[in-house]
Amino acid sequence: MRKRSTLFTALAMAMLVPGCEQRSPDEGAADPEPTVTTWDSAGIEIVENHAPEHAMGEFWTIDSVPEFVLGGADDHGAPAADSDQLIWEVVGLARLEDGRVAVLSSMGKQLLLFEPSGVLSRTIGRAGEGPGEFRQPEWLQYLPPDTLVVWDYFMSSISYFDTAGNLLRERGVDQARLREAGASGEAFVRPLPDGTFVASVRGGPDNEVVESKGWNPRTSSLMTFDRRVGNYARIDDSYSPQVLGPRSGIATGGDPPSIYLSGRGRNEIRQLSLDGVLLRIIRRTTDPIPVTERAYRNILERTYLSAVAMGSPVPREIVEQMVEREETHPPTAGVLLDPEGYLWVREWSGSESGTPDQWSVFNPEGRWLGVLPFPWTPDPAEPNSCGGNTRVLCWVDRDFLLVVRQDDLGVERVEGYRIRRGG
Predict the structure, then answer these.
(1) Residue 417's CB: how many other CB atoms inside 10 A?
(2) Strand arrangement, sheet containing 110-114
(3) Tens of pLDDT along 283-309?
């Protein structure tokens, strides 16, 4: 008993000696590095993200199986039950506030509205050149809560419909004045909510010349040519081009409505007001993803299969000459914006697939929230410009990611994947 008491006394005295007091595990530990730094530079907010706020697996999730499939099939993977519901050459998607999905078919020359159940409920427009008719529709614009705008071939007509299919009004574009501004109908890039639009224009300080390689099917040879990168410009009612920046990924929308441009070669996105004023730079300091030998081979295969799908097959040895081996993947492969202003950046992971296969999501304030893998495994043979600077083949909102996909026969379908924001 005496021995135990002596030991207890010794331990108690040791705890009172300066420098020997007990500490909690976290006490005295270095403060964690901040994951984001924000400052102001000449009235422009700089949001520099060093890491996502949520780790992989602790963020939102996207269901791996689509909740609905549009395009005529009763079940995912089944043949079309009704040929009238087949879709092809989809150039625009939108999910309406009532849950219906609008699908614009360029070759079908119609705007189709599907119920959430997948049933085709209404078609809007038809082939022709009269009021509410389409020559070859190219763009779909959704103006909540109940207006759909279809931009026809080369902006020959711009038709406003309500969701019941009634033509509300039409307007046109003065092509002569557009050419005077250094653009054309073919240079159309993106409509804006206020009725103006973004086009690609010649001239300007960033209109650099880039050497490109291409395949000449007539001579069966590789050719080199100069390609002007060009600039994005907002064209207003006075047809005055307001240069926004060099061509890159682009997204528009949010609240307040904004224009987002991804930096070519820079790991940053620039947010501008609709009148072109730079408001915020969203930047990341993370290291780029290296292009491994396996990833490079997959990139070559995708290039080859894409040329085959377009009807201009290129010999594999020529593909290797056309596609130069880069050390790292670009920082972004495309950008999307949901109606609430969340920015989705399509990018490469370390999977070596050679195809952009994940999304980084940023909140409306530019904070990097987390990373979401694609709910499907990218197929090198499947074309997909989801989030690119050409056709809008994706739609994202609070509840769903919609994407246009193709089967082995090239038949298109729209798949709707549920987004779960519980994380």
Answers:
(1) 20
(2) 90-95, 101-105, 110-114, 120-124
(3) 999 999 999 999 999 999 888 887 887
